[in-house]
Amino acid sequence: MEEQKKQAGSELELSGVSLSDKIEKIQRISEDVIHAISRAVKGQTTNIRYLWQSILIGGHVLLEGVPGLGKTLLVRSLAQVIDGKSARIQFTPDLMPSDVTGNKIFDLQTGRFSYRKGPIFTNVLLADEINRTPPKTQAALLEAMEEQQVTIDGETFPLPKLFFVVATQNPIEYEGTYVLPEAQLDRFSTKLIIGYPDKEEEKKLLTTHRFHERREKELSRIITIDELLAFREVIEQVTVSEAVVEYVHAIITETRNHPKILLGASPRAGLSLLALSKAEAAINGRTYVTPDDVKVVTKPSLRHRILLQPDGELEGWSSDEVLEEIIESVVVPR
Q1: Which of 11, 151, 247, 282 counts the most CB atoms within 10 A of its CB?
Q2: pLDDT classification of 212: cutoffs 50, 70, 90
Q3: 275 CB-contact burial (10 Å; exposed 0-12 / middle 13-18 / buried 19+)
């Protein structure tokens, strides 16, 4: 009952307000969120922005980077500012699907089976080193990420209304890892490459860090879960002109026709690209999407959804370079 009252209050707060005022509120809170997380995770402001966009549209994120760059810290900081529950699953070769989703256990007192929920029942889930577990366990996340529910022995259990998966993988280790299937990669709205911080940020980290203190900072709550869910409804109302829709479709189509690409982007990828463009527009304080918004989010949205030709990978092509070629070749609408 208390949760319903909170949600109703949040909806009333945004009802009767013009779209431009709602977008202004999203812009203001987004700036506060990005700034707060940036204080905890140095040198990753752009990736923090993409991470925030993804949660605003109800997507999921794949983080790729070597150890020690703050991927776990990034996820925990996000959970703090939205006042949500977070959980971490360390994926290993011996991890079972039931370790992720939970299982049914027999209760001797009642004589019945009861469901014991797994760590997946949370708001922000960190799937650490997801490519270290076999495909059977990876598949346990598929239904959860797409349908926001878990099915055990034919019985369906809904996940929290805010369910956000951030999976990590190490790009340089191949021994003992399993390649993520295309079906699962397509579930991630964004793939972010976590790189080393720039010189000044890293020097600042070295001079200010105390070895006996944790890097994780206590961040204040900036937005409630109910407000975040209400923001998603507002972002849905961001206007997209027919010309911009054609532009998005042209980019998606070009990924299927480009000679360096073996497998192009799916229709789901096009929907995700458009949704991220709306979030980019909202964060910038606009009620409409421009081609520049689409350009900004094209690489993080599509880099994991295209498969390059084998000879291209041998010659050193990267997905980002090919996507840059596509962005430059597609005519931008006026």
Answers
A1: 282
A2: low
A3: buried
